[in-house]
Amino acid sequence: MIIISLTGGTKTQRNLTEDAARYIIKQLLPRKRTLYLDIHIHNILKEDAVGYCMRVDRNEYELELHNRGSMYEYISTLAHELVHLKQYDQAELRFKHMKQYWMGVDMTDVAYEKQPWEKEARKLQPLLAKDFIESETKYTVKDCEDISPRTLKTMDWQQEFDIIDRYCPDE
């Protein structure tokens, strides 16, 4: 059984997140039967990220997702983090004793943009997001670039910029 618990965000955003997560997990791990996934939707801009994935136990994972941006950015970020979940689940990616291993090879000193697990996640995220949007929603990818995942209505970009300015002021 795949159990997904969600906290934060709006009810609309939690529903969208669960639908997208179930769909993308099925694409990435079609034979997966047991999975516990906690997804926390909140403002993580201060942490200089829009998403995180962490393995808690054998079949238990936690994701953190930034709660703002367009619907496309949001689903794409979710897809990126779920690719990491797949990598942990398939033992492609492991963190052990403060070291990072990819396919059993120590990659601790590899720069972020060259890490193979990040390359794979960046490659798959737009494909998975597009597939979910086109298969499971009434929107196009282009529509989703201007729709808020919080309300499923047209974005108020000025409000988004104001929030970014508040949490990430120019230095």
Question: By helix and strand content, what is the structural category?
Answer: alpha/beta
Q: What's the total helix number? A: 5
* Cα gyration radius (Å): 16 Å
Output the helix-strand order. EHEEEHEEEHHH
What does the main sheet amount to? 4 strands, mixed
Instruction: Give the overall shape.
Output: globular
Helix content, binned percent = 40-55%
Low-confidence stretches: none
Subunit organisation of the chains? single chain
Total strands: 7
How much is the average pLDDT? 91
Strand content: 15-25%
Strand order of the largest sheet: 1-2-4-3
Calculate the terminal CA-CA distance, rounded to whole Å. 47 Å
Quick gist of this model?
This protein is α/β, with parallel strands linked by helices and 171 residues long. It contains five helices and seven strands. The chain has a four-stranded mixed β-sheet with strand order 1-2-4-3, with helices on one face. Strands 5-6-7 form a three-stranded antiparallel β-sheet.
